[in-house]
């Protein structure tokens, strides 16, 4: 599993890439502007929630923030796929971002499942 500090840095770098993509898109049309607003909110929220989770007051707080980060990563993947499907940008331009986002979803899914299982294990008294 990815080290937490590596994940913080990785999601920060992902946020920067999303920001730069949106900066490029923002000048096209109203439709791209609307999609870009959604994309920048979800794409930058992933890292922000992970950072908040690092300072969680409890295991439950940590889990909550990471679960939100996972949801935001899935939403970001959706918006990136939409940009390709709507032919706003070619897949080869977004391929690396799509792959990174998919990897973040996988990493966060693993972390959330692991923490949930630990929580259930403790709760069951085993």
Structure commentary:
- The protein is mostly helical and 126 residues long.
- The protein has a single domain (4-123), classed as de novo design (two linked rop proteins) (Up-down Bundle).
- Helices cover 85% and strands 0% of the residues.
- The protein has four helices and no strands.
- It has helices at 4-25, 30-54, 59-85, 91-123.
- Helix 1 (4-25) packs antiparallel against helix 4 and helix 3 packs antiparallel against helix 4.
- The longest helix is centred in the C-terminal third of the chain and has 33 residues, at 91-123.
- It is elongated, with a radius of gyration of 16 Å.
- The mean pLDDT is 90.
Number of helices: 4
Q: Tally the beta strands.
A: 0
Helical fraction equals: over 70%
Largest sheet: none
What percent strand?
under 5%
Q: Shape, please?
A: elongated
CATH class: Mainly Alpha
Radius of gyration: 16 Å
Helix/strand structural class: mainly alpha
Number of self-contained structural domains: 1
The CATH H-level superfamily is 23S rRNA-intervening sequence
User: Could you tell me the mean pLDDT?
Assistant: 90
What secondary-structure arrangement, pairings included, does this model have?
Blueprint: H1 4-25, H2 30-54, H3 59-85, H4 91-123
Helix pairs in contact: 1-2, 1-4, 2-3, 3-4
Question: What are its keywords?
Answer:
126 residues, mainly alpha, de novo design (two linked rop proteins), 4 helices, elongated
Care to give the gist of this entry?
With 126 residues, the protein is mainly alpha-helical. The protein contains 4 helices and no strands.
């Amino acid at each position: 599993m990815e080290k937490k500090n590596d994940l913080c840095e990785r999601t920060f770098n992902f946020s920067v890439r999303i920001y730069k993509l949106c900066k490029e898109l923002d000048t096209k049309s109203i439709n791209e502007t609307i999609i870009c607003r959604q994309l920048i909110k979800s794409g930058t929220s992933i890292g922000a929630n992970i950072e908040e989770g690092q300072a969680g007051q409890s295991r439950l707080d940590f889990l909550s923030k990471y679960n939100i980060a996972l949801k935001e990563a899935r939403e970001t993947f959706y918006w990136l796929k939409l940009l390709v499907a709507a032919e706003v940008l070619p897949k080869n331009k977004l391929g690396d971002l799509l792959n990174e986002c998919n990897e973040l979803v996988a990493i966060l899914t693993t972390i959330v499942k692991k923490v949930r299982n630990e929580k259930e294990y403790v709760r069951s008294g085993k």
